[in-house]
Amino acid sequence: MSHHYIEFNNVGYRYPSGQVALENISFRITHGERVALIGANGAGKSTLLNLCCGILLPTTGDIVVGGVRVENKQLQEIRRQVGIVFQNPDDQLIMSSVEEEIAFGPLNMGYPPDKVEQLVEQVMHQTSTIRLRNRPPYNLSGGEKKSVAIASVLAMEPSVILMDEPSASLDPRARRLMMELVESFGHTILLSSHDLGLAERLCPRTLLLHHGYLVADGATTELLSDKELMERCELL
User: pTM higher than 0.85 for the full model?
Assistant: First the structure.
């Protein structure tokens, strides 16, 4: 059995203020699946992604990623396995050049310099960012920043990739190029989005959150065509 999976078992999360963000969430995403995570604002999508990679830890229940339980003592291993592309690339890009940005993660993970150089070249070609290698990330367009953010995650060789609103602020061409890039991946992917067209194209399966509960888990085309369900969950 592949270890490239995400499993939630009766997971809940309560913020320090006492507000309940997620309640009794259970699902399993297996190797190579591309799964969409949809829901209205405040449904709990970003919280769920943050739980997957250990930015947050569950209040109740268990999360297992690739055979490793998400808990404090395992966070280093979880972050080796899981890469996250944030909604706003400016939250992710910190170095003075694209090449340095992509190399930052694997260098910090202790990869030898020759392997880092090989990885940087590989992912720059894969993401069509090689022409940007000496550019400062803050001077790039929104689509270019998103591609660099994705490249920086790929360079860390994760088994699982999380994407938070990957089409946010992209123009139509950048959105199309981003979707083509994601379609080329063989990773296990959990993708949170308000862009239902993107979810339908990229993800055969969808998880639907509503007020912190998982209310549907099934084929994307079937869920999106259920008008009553979409209206009840404030997506129409």
Answer: yes
